[in-house]
From TrEMBL, chain A:
It comes from Streptomyces zinciresistens K42. The active site is at R342. Residues 48-453 form the FAD-dependent oxidoreductase 2 FAD-binding domain. GO terms for biological process: anaerobic respiration. One of its GO terms (molecular function) is electron transfer activity. It comes from the Bacteria. Its EC number is 1.3.5.1. This is succinate dehydrogenase. It is found in: Cell membrane. The gene is sdhA. Its main location: membrane. The lineage of its organism: Bacteria, Bacillati, Actinomycetota, Actinomycetes, Kitasatosporales. Its cofactor is FAD.
TrEMBL record, chain B:
One of its GO terms (cellular component) is membrane. It comes from the Bacteria. The lineage of its organism: Bacteria, Bacillati, Actinomycetota, Actinomycetes, Kitasatosporales. InterPro entries: Cytochrome_b-558, SQR/QFR_C/D. This is Cytochrome b subunit. Keywords: Membrane, Transmembrane, Transmembrane helix. The chain crosses the membrane at residues 21-41, 63-86, 107-128, 156-177, 198-222. The keyword Nucleotidyltransferase does not apply.
Automatic annotation (TrEMBL), chain C:
Keywords: Iron, Iron-sulfur, Metal-binding, Oxidoreductase. This is Succinate dehydrogenase/fumarate reductase iron-sulfur subunit. The lineage of its organism: Bacteria, Bacillati, Actinomycetota, Actinomycetes, Kitasatosporales. It is an enzyme of class 1 (oxidoreductase). GO terms for biological process: aerobic respiration; respiratory electron transport chain. Its EC number is 1.3.99.1. Its cofactor is [3Fe-4S] cluster; [2Fe-2S] cluster.
Length: 650, 223, 254
C-alpha cells in the first residue's frame, strides 16, 4: 500500500447551493419557479446526451425529447429495453395513501431518511416523496399493468423497513413493467426523430471543454469504432457499481466506466463505500458462479426466516422441530420481525452463519420458510403472490419452495454511493448530470426496498427535465466543439491507448480471473462487515492486483471488431481504481451506518453505532491521479425535520 | 382498404381463411350430395340433373351452377395465390436452416403446403375426369355421372389418386379450419377445445364421406 | 460432466459461418448453460483463441438478451431463457449443438450474437401509449377490471428475446407483435390509439421481412414467458376490427 494514498488531504467543504431555503415541503416548488426556462422554440437547438436507458435514463430521454430537446442516447445493450432496471422485482413506493393506513408524503420522507440511517439530504428525499405520487399516475397512463384488486383499483403491499402498505407492484416484475413503460415512451420519441438512439455503444470517456461537460467518447461495440459525440449537457444514467464485487445481483455487463471516467474528469464521487447487501438472494453453488440472483424482498412479507438453534445441525429442514428453530429476526426485532431494513436483515444472516448455524452447502445460507404462509393463505394465494419467484428459485436450485424452505443469503445488490450531485442533480462538472443509481443523493447509507425504482423515475421523468432547463438557459450554447480541440484529442488518445495496451499485453490471465480476484477481496474486506485492518489489507492488495493486471492481462482479438473480452477488460481497469476509493472511504468513515458496518463501531448488542458527531456528512472525493490520494470534501448534512436517532426496529 | 388487406400478411391470411371456409362449405354440400350414389343410379343422376336447375324458374338453367363455379374459382385462385405469396415470404424470412434439425409442429401443420399442392392438382384431374370427361377412362357419358363415377373407380389409379387426395383433404381441413378461426379472431382460450373438436370432426366426416364412394364401387355396393 | 459442444462460429456479419467442435470437462450440473460457456471461453482465451461471442446480461431470465438455439430448440430443452437453463438438463457425455437465432430479420453479428433491432422498429411503430410526462390523470381515475389488467400483464411479460422468431418455421414475429398489441389494446389507457397501433405495428412487422403465421404454434412453445398462441388470434381480431373501422392505408409513409 502506498502510504501516500491513505494520506488524503481534506479540501474545502462542499455545499449544495441549489436547494432553496424555506420549509422543506415548498423547496421543490420554489426551485422549479426560480429555475430559468428555455423557450420551447430554442430547445430543438440544444443537444443533450443521455448515457443509459434504464428507468432513469429511459424516462429522462423520453421526457427531454418530449420537451423539444434533441437527445442523443446510448446503451451498451442491443436494445434500450434490456437495461438492468428490468430485473427489479418487488415494487415501487408512492405516498398515495390509497389504503388509508396513515401514509403521507411526510411519512415516506421520514421513512426514507430514517431508513437511510441519516446520511441523505432532507431536501432531496422530501422531493422524492412528493414526486412519488405523480410517478404512479404517469406509469398508469402509459399502460403499466400494475396489480389491481377486483374493484379495478390499484393494489399495494408492504415492504421492508416501513409499517404502511405503499408499494405498488406488477407481480414480481415491477421493474420490467416500469422500464417497458419508459422504453415505450422512448421508442415513441425515437420514431419521432427526437431521440437519436445508439444501442450497443459504450461510453468510454467524458469530454470536458472550458470546464463544462460537452460530450462523450464512445465505442461502437459491433465495429469497435471509437467516436466522439457532442452536446450542451451530458446526463449519466449508467447505474451503480456493484459489479466491483464480481458477484452481485447486477447484470453481467453493468459497469462503472461512465461514472468513473466522469470522476477522473472532475466529477466528485460521494460515499463510495455505501453499498447495499440484499438479504434475500439465492446462495451460490460453486466457484463457477457468474452472478447472483435476487429473490424479491417482498418474500419477507409472508416468509419466515430461521436457522437451527444448534450449531452444525445438518438435518433437513422438515426434520428440525419447531422448538429447535431460531426465527432470529422475529426474536431480535419483535415489532418489525422479518421486515427489518435490508442492512439489518443481511447482517443478522451473516452473524448466524458466522456462528456456524448457516444451512445449505458451505453453511452460507438461512431458511426463508413459507410453510406457515401456505397453511394460512392456501397454496393458491401464495402462488398468486409469489408464483414467478418460486418458479425462478426452483429453476436455479432444483428445489420446490412449496415443499422445502428456500435458502437465501445476502449479496451485493445496490450502491447508494455515486457521483456527487446538487439538488439539481448536477455533478461538480458543470453540464454533467447524474441520475438514478449513478448519483448518491437520496438513499443515504441504506436504500429502502422499492425505492430505487421510485428514485430512478423521479429523477428521469420529473427532476432532471425541470433542472436541466436552468443550466441550459443560463449557459447559452458556446462555440461548437470539434475533434480537433486539444481536450478532445487528449481524451481520444487516452482512450485509444488504453484499449491498445489491453490488447498488447498478451499475458497469461483472463479478464474474469482478475475480476474474480478483486471481487473476492472486496467481499471479504469491504463487504457486509468492515474493519480497519481488513480495509488496510485490501488497500495494500488492490494496487498490486492493478500492477499485475497490466502485466498479465490477456485479451484476444482486435479492437476493430465485436470483442467482449476487450469490453470486460476495459471495465475492470476502472473497477481496479474504484475499488481502492471504496476501501478508502470505508476506512475513513469510522462509524457504522446503514450498509456500512464497521466492526469497531457497534453497540453492545451488536447493532450499528452511528457517530453523528463526527460523520454526519457526505464524503465527496475529488480525483487526483491513479493510485494517488484523492481529496476529501465534506458536505455537512443538516436535519431540520427528521432528527437523527439511533435506528430501532426492535 | 382492399389493397391494404392484400399487402399485409395478416390480410392475406384473412383471404386464405375466407376462401378456405367458402370451399369447405362447398365440400360439405358436395360430400352430402355424393352419398346419394348409394340410392342407385336413377336417384343420383336425377339429383345431378336437379343441380343444373337450381333456382329455376327465377334463374335460367345452369345459372346457379355457374354462379357457384365462379365463386369457387375465385376462392381457389385467391387461396392458392395467397398461399404461394405467403410461402415465398416465409421461406425468405427463414433462409438458413438450423444445423440441428428437429421435427416440429403437428403432421397436419407441416403438410399444409404440399397438401395444398396435391389438392390443387387433384381438382384439375377431377374436373377433367368427371366434368369435362377429357381424361375419363372409358366412354364419358354426359348427364350420367353415376356411370362415370363407377368407371373412374374401376381403375386402380382413379382410386389411388382419389384416396390420396381425400386423405390430404382431411389433414388440410384439420389444421385449416382451426387456423382460419384463429386468423379471423374467432378463437379463444375457452373455445379452443371446441374449435379443434369441430376441425377434427369436419376432417373426419369429409374424408370418410368422400371415401365412401370409391369404397362402395370397390366393394360392389355401387356398380 | 464432460461434454462435446458444436458451436456456430462466424467472424462477423459478412463472413461465412460453420460449426466448430469443442470439448469441455469438469462441468457441474449446478452451472447455468451460460456459465458452462464461460468455462469454455476462459479456456479459449488462455489458448489464444477467440472466445465464443454470445449475448447475455441479467442472467436472471428477464432482460431477454440471451438467445441461443440449443439442440434445435430456442433457449434449449426447458421452457425458460438460456441463462436460466442449467446443466442438470443434460447428461455426462452429451453432444450439444449451439446455434444463433435464425431469421433473415435477425442477421448474425458474430458467432451466436444476432441483430434484433427489427423488434425496436416494430415497437416504435406504435407499441406505446402517447402519454407525455406530466399529463397523467390521477391513477385511480380509471379503474381497470381485474381480468383486463391480468390479460394486459400476461402479454406485457414479453421480454423481447426473439425466441418466437427463432422457433417459427417462417421466421415470423407474430407472437412478439401481438403480445405488445394485446397488452396495450385491452387497457383503457391504450384505447385511443387502439386501431392505429395494431395497423401500424403489423405493417412495420411486415416491412422488417418477418414471415407470416401458419399457426404452427412453435413460438408459444418456445416462449420463455408463456405468451399464449391465442395472443396471435386476439391480434388478428384487433387487426380486422381496425381495418373495418379505419378508412386509411395501414401503411403510413415510412
Amino acid at each position: 500500500m502506498s502510504a501516500a494514498y491513505l494520506n488524503y488531504p481534506t479540501g474545502a467543504p462542499v455545499a449544495d447551493t441549489k436547494a432553496p431555503a424555506g420549509p422543506v415541503a415548498e423547496r421543490w416548488d420554489t426551485r422549479r419557479f426560480e429555475a430559468k426556462l428555455v423557450n420551447p422554440a430554442n430547445r430543438r437547438k440544444h443537444t443533450v446526451i443521455v448515457v443509459g436507458t434504464g428507468l432513469a435514463g429511459g424516462s429522462a430521454g423520453a421526457t427531454l425529447a418530449e420537451q423539444g430537446y434533441h437527445v442523443v442516447q446510448f446503451c451498451y445493450q442491443d436494445s434500450p429495453r434490456r437495461a438492468h432496471s428490468i430485473a427489479a422485482q418487488g415494487g415501487i413506493n408512492a405516498a398515495k395513501n390509497y389504503r388509508n393506513d396513515g401514509d403521507s408524503v411526510h411519512r415516506l420522507f421520514y421513512d426514507t431518511v430514517k431508513g437511510g440511517d441519516f446520511r441523505a439530504r432532507e431536501s432531496n428525499v422530501h422531493r422524492l416523496a412528493q414526486i412519488s405520487v405523480e410517478i404512479i399516475d404517469q406509469c398508469v397512463a402509459q399502460g403499466v399493468p400494475f396489480a389491481r384488486e377486483y374493484g379495478g383499483l390499484l393494489d399495494t403491499r408492504s415492504f421492508g423497513g416501513v409499517q404502511v402498505s405503499r408499494t405498488f407492484y406488477a407481480r414480481g416484475q415491477t421493474g420490467q413493467q416500469l422500464l417497458l413503460g419508459a422504453y415505450q415512451a422512448l421508442s415513441r420519441q425515437i420514431a419521432a426523430g427526437n431521440v437519436e438512439m445508439h444501442p450497443r455503444t459504450e461510453m468510454l470517456d467524458l469530454i470536458v471543454v472550458d470546464g463544462r461537460a460537452r460530450g462523450i467518447v464512445a465505442r461502437d461495440l459491433i465495429t469497435g469504432r471509437i467516436d466522439t459525440y457532442y452536446a450542451d449537457a451530458v446526463v449519466l444514467a449508467s447505474g451503480g457499481y456493484g459489479n466491483v464485487f464480481y458477484l452481485s445481483t447486477n447484470a453481467m455487463n453493468s459497469n462503472a466506466t461512465a461514472v468513473w471516467r466522469a470522476h477522473r474528469r472532475g466529477a466528485w464521487f460521494a460515499n463510495p463505500c455505501f453499498t447495499q447487501i440484499h438479504p434475500t438472494c439465492v446462495p451460490r453453488t460453486g466457484d463457477h458462479q457468474s452472478k447472483l440472483t435476487l429473490m424479491s424482498e417482498s418474500l419477507r412479507n409472508d416468509g419466515r426466516i430461521w436457522v437451527p438453534k444448534a450449531k452444525g445441525d445438518d438435518r433437513p429442514a422438515h426434520r428440525i422441530p419447531e422448538d429447535e428453530r431460531d426465527y432470529y429476526l422475529e426474536r431480535i426485532y419483535p415489532s418489525f420481525g422479518n421486515l427489518v431494513p435490508r442492512d439489518i436483515a443481511s447482517r443478522a444472516a451473516k452473524n448466524v452463519c458466522d456462528e456456524g448455524r448457516g444451512v445449505g452447502p458451505g453453511g452460507q445460507g438461512v431458511y426463508l420458510d413459507f410453510a406457515d404462509a401456505v397453511r394460512r393463505m392456501g397454496r393458491d394465494a401464495v402462488e398468486a403472490r409469489y408464483g414467478n419467484l418460486f418458479d425462478m428459485y426452483q429453476r436455479i436450485t432444483d428445489e420446490d419452495p412449496y415443499e422445502v424452505p428456500m435458502r437465501i443469503y445476502p449479496a451485493v445488490h445496490y450502491t447508494m454511493g455515486g457521483l456527487w450531485v446538487d439538488y439539481d442533480l448536477q455533478t461538480t462538472v458543470p453540464g454533467l448530470f447524474a441520475i438514478g443509481e449513478a448519483n448518491f443523493s437520496d438513499h443515504g447509507a441504506n436504500r429502502l426496498g422499492a425505492s430505487a425504482l421510485m428514485q430512478g423515475l423521479a429523477d428521469g421523468y420529473f427532476v432532471l427535465p425541470a433542472t436541466i432547463n436552468d443550466y441550459l438557459a443560463r449557459n447559452p450554447r458556446h462555440e461548437t466543439v470539434t475533434d480537433e480541440h486539444p481536450n478532445v484529442q487528449e481524451v481520444l488518445a487516452e482512450t485509444q491507448d488504453r484499449l491498445h495496451l489491453l490488447l498488447a499485453v498478451d499475458g497469461d490471465r483472463t479478464p474474469d480471473s482478475f475480476h474474480r480476484e478483486l471481487g473476492e477481496l472486496m467481499w471479504e474486506f469491504c463487504g457486509m462487515a468492515r474493519t480497519d485492518s481488513g480495509l488496510r489489507k485490501a488497500l495494500e492488495r488492490i494496487p498490486q492486483i492493478r500492477e499485475e493486471f497490466w502485466r498479465r492481462i490477456k485479451v484476444p482479438g482486435s479492437g476493430e471488431e465485436f470483442n467482449q473480452s476487450l469490453e470486460k477488460a476495459n471495465r475492470i481497469v476502472d473497477y481496479l481504481e474504484l475499488a481502492e476509493l471504496m476501501c478508502l472511504d470505508a476506512l475513513h468513515r469510522e462509524e457504522s451506518c446503514g450498509g456500512h458496518f464497521r466492526e469497531e463501531s457497534q453497540t453492545p448488542d451488536g447493532e450499528a453505532a452511528r457517530r453523528d458527531d463526527a460523520f454526519a456528512y457526505a464524503a465527496a472525493w475529488e480525483f487526483t491521479d491513479t493510485g494517488a490520494a484523492p481529496v476529501l470534501h465534506k458536505e455537512d448534512l443538516v436535519f431540520e425535520y427528521v432528527h437523527p436517532t439511533q435506528r430501532s426496529y426492535a | 382498404m382492399a389493397r391494404a388487406v392484400w399487402d399485409s400478411t395478416v390480410g392475406k391470411k384473412t383471404v386464405m381463411a375466407v376462401s378456405g371456409l367458402t370451399m369447405l362449405l362447398y365440400l360439405i354440400v358436395h360430400m352430402a350430395g355424393n352419398l346419394k350414389i348409394f340410392f342407385g343410379a336413377d336417384t343420383f343422376n336425377e339429383y345431378a340433373r336437379w343441380l343444373r336447375t337450381v333456382g329455376a324458374p327465377f334463374l335460367h338453367e345452369e345459372w346457379a351452377l355457374w354462379l357457384v363455379r365462379v365463386v369457387l374459382v375465385v376462392a381457389v385462385v385467391a387461396h392458392a395465390v395467397s398461399a404461394y405469396q405467403l410461402s415465398r415470404r416465409d421461406l425468405r424470412a427463414r433462409p438458413d436452416k438450423y444445423v440441428h434439425k428437429k421435427a416440429r409442429a403437428s403432421y397436419a401443420t407441416r403438410t399444409m403446403r404440399w397438401g395444398g399442392v396435391i389438392l390443387g392438382l387433384f381438382i384439375v384431374w377431377h374436373i377433367l375426369d368427371l366434368t369435362t370427361g377429357t381424361v375419363h377412362p372409358g366412354g364419358f357419358q354426359a348427364g350420367r355421372p353415376y356411370e362415370n363415377i363407377v368407371d373412374t373407380f374401376s381403375t386402380w389409379y382413379g382410386n389411388v389418386i382419389y384416396i390420396v387426395a381425400m386423405l390430404a383433404l382431411g389433414l388440410h381441413v384439420r389444421h385449416g379450419f382451426w387456423s382460419a378461426a384463429q386468423t379471423l379472431g374467432a378463437g379463444s382460450r375457452t373455445r379452443d377445445r371446441a374449435l379443434k373438436g369441430v376441425a377434427n370432426v369436419l376432417a373426419l366426416l369429409l374424408t370418410v364421406g368422400f371415401l365412401a364412394v370409391p369404397v362402395g364401387v370397390m366393394t360392389g355396393v355401387v356398380g | 460432466m464432460k461434454l462435446t459442444l458444436r458451436v456456430w462460429r462466424q467472424k462477423n456479419a459478412d463472413a461465412e459461418g460453420a460449426m466448430s467442435t469443442y470439448q469441455v470437462d469438469g462441468i457441474s450440473s449446478d452451472m447455468s448453460f451460460l456459465e458452462m460457456l464461460d468455462t469454455l471461453n476462459e479456456e479459449l482465451i488462455l489458448r489464444g483463441e477467440d472466445p465464443v461471442a454470445f449475448d447475455h446480461d441479467c442472467r436472471e431470465g428477464i432482460c431477454g438478451a440471451c438467445s441461443l438455439v440449443i439442440n434445435g430448440d430456442a433457449h434449449g430443452p426447458e421452457r425458460t431463457t438460456t441463462c436460466q437453463l442449467h446443466m442438470r438438463s443434460f447428461r455426462d457425455g452429451d453432444t450439444i449443438d449451439v446455434e444463433p437465432w435464425r431469421a433473415s430479420a435477425f442477421p448474425v453479428v458474430k458467432d451466436l450474437v444476432v441483430d434484433r433491432s427489427a423488434f425496436e422498429r416494430v415497437i416504435q411503430a406504435g407499441g406505446y401509449v402517447t402519454a407525455p410526462t406530466g399529463a397523467a390523470p390521477e391513477a385511480h381515475a380509471t379503474p381497470v377490471p381485474k381480468p383486463d389488467a391480468d390479460f394486459a400483464f400476461e402479454h406485457a411479460e414479453c421480454i423481447g428475446c426473439g425466441a418466437c422468431v427463432a422457433a417459427c418455421p417462417n421466421g415470423a414475429a407474430m407472437l412478439f407483435t401481438s403480445a405488445k398489441i394485446n397488452h396495450l389494446n385491452v387497457l383503457p389507457q391504450g384505447a385511443p390509439e387502439r386501431e392505429t397501433r395494431v395497423l401500424d405495428m403489423v405493417a412495420a412487422m411486415d416491412d422488417e421481412g418477418f414471415g407470416g403465421c401458419t399457426l404452427a404454434g412453435e413460438c408459444a412453445t418456445a416462449c420463455p414467458k408463456g405468451i399464449p398462441l391465442m395472443s396471435i388470434t386476439s391480434m388478428n381480431k384487433e387487426w380486422l376490427r381496425a381495418t373495418r373501422k379505419v378508412k386509411r392505408s395501414p401503411h403510413p409513409p415510412r
